[in-house]
Design brief:
single chain, mainly alpha, 3 helices
């Protein structure tokens, strides 16, 4: 019986100690609530970060595609510019030939030259 009394007293002391610890720190059920809240927050952060990373990757992909398109257009414009320059050089050459012949066409013919052609 004495042993039972001591055991009961010891159980009572442990219960008081446990209650004091819970009052001083945090109770088990409060810890579980905090753990659940932390898990929800952690999941939300992971989803948000994953979504943001996907958006950034999409934007980078768009930028790279745009960069490639711009490079292709610049190459095409450069080729067109070179072609136009060659055509301009050809046109300028033709203009020079025409002007040199136009000067001779515009000169009046001497009557002596006309007589030489006729005879």
């Amino acid at each position: 019986m004495k042993l039972q009394l001591e055991q009961t007293k010891e159980d009572g002391n442990q219960a008081k100690l446990s209650k004091n610890l819970e009052d001083t720190f945090i109770k088990k059920n409060e810890f579980k609530v905090l753990d659940l809240d932390f898990s929800k927050l952690s999941d939300h952060v992971k989803k948000t970060i994953t979504g943001n990373i996907a958006k950034i990757e999409q934007k980078l992909s768009n930028i790279e595609s745009s960069k490639q398109d711009t490079a292709n257009k610049m190459t095409e414009l450069s080729n067109n510019d070179e072609k136009v320059f060659k055509e301009l050089v050809t046109l300028s050459s033709l203009k020079s030939k025409f002007e040199s012949k136009a000067n001779s066409w515009d000169n009046k013919v001497d009557s002596s030259e006309v007589k030489s052609w006729i005879h």
